[in-house]
Amino acid sequence: GKAGHDHYMHKEIHEQPNALRQAISGRIDELTGNASLDIDLDERYLQAVDEIHIVACGTSYHAGLYAKELLEPLVDLTVRVDLASEYEVYDGFDSRRTLVVAVTQSGETADTLSAIRRAKAPGMTTLAVTNTVGSTITREVDDSLFIKAGPEIGVAATKTFVSQVTALALFTIYLGRLRGTISAGDGADILENIRRLPNAVQSILDAEPNIKRLAKQYVDSDAFFFIGRGLAYPVALESALKLKEISYAHAEGFAAGELKHGPLALVTKNTPVLAFLSESASPDETFNNVKEVESRGAPVIGLSTSDGTESFCKHTIDIPSLGRLEPLVANVALQLFAYHVANEMGRPIDKPRNLAKSVTVE
Length: 362
Ligand code: M6R
Fold this sequence. Notes:
Blueprint: H1 8-14, H2 16-24, E1 28-29, E2 34-35, H3 43-48, E3 51-56, H4 58-74, E4 78-83, E5 98-104, H5 110-120, E6 125-130, H6 136-140, E7 143-146, H7 159-179, H8 184-206, H9 208-218, E8 224-228, H10 232-247, E9 251-255, E10 273-276, H11 283-294, E11 300-304, E12 315-318, H12 326-344
Parallel strand pairs: 3-4, 3-5, 5-6, 6-7, 8-9, 8-10, 10-11, 11-12
Antiparallel strand pairs: 1-2
5-amino-5-deoxy-1-O-phosphono-D-mannitol (M6R) binds next to helix 4 and helix 10.
Domain SIS: 41-181, 214-352
GO molecular function, one term: carbohydrate derivative binding
Subcellular location: Cytoplasm
């Protein structure tokens, strides 16, 4: 049942600290600065891989975009992230040195399954990052990495996003240590942030009354825009998807630097802009974009690790310092924002119109 919550989505948002503890449990080896993952793929193959293709849909695609931002600077690889329905295999890369990673909560998404089938045709090795033991995808791929988030019932993916990114962060460390691009010390530093993640998420959940107040204040807006850079860009896309699917409001996520290339024309005093200003997401550059929208009268809600820049925003939501995982923590604040906007509108949050939890048609 819903254990006292009005909706499964609300329950699942609040389950995140525990879901994360499960995802991490037994997978951190502090001594060697490594992640211990039960992956059976051949280590010599993983050392020789020079390209990763990530395929996924919806929220899982956003987790894939986040993973690319972790993998590329830390592991010596090219990472391509494709919407599963758009994934096509052309010549021009070495299929024996390419790993295809499917990210899917359910393991049953038809678009993702068919992308994996396309990858297997020329002989590429495949890995699923999934929540569902025994799902169709686990039977089709070479190996699976389970995110251990526990069952998710709300149509909106919440706890599985944070768990997917965490599993992919652990995978990044594992690959980097295996290939010698991440030192034991750097591995230990990232692992330390992963270990702190459950409590960091809890601190956001504790700020729910503040986030709920903002949601009520802006519920009648014409549209909602989310802006971020780097690691925060996929989180801006994810936040917009969450809000639009459960509230039916117009919501869009943009790379902060792209505003001036078109979307700025949509900005008015009735379009709140939620801006990711945390330390790991180039806050100074994004701050210039905040000024652009403020001068058009838009109210700005800044998500920040409080270094001072946020004092220029109309409202702020504090994010704990957590290196590369800060935007992931900030995402939880915007899950709560989306939830409270939709709840204020009286929407059927766990079963939005036209949508299904797992999409088994292409
Ligand atoms: O089960 P999957 O992760 O493969 O599902 C992919 C998408 O259908 C899913 O994330 C969808 O976008 C959610 N409703 C988003 O909240």
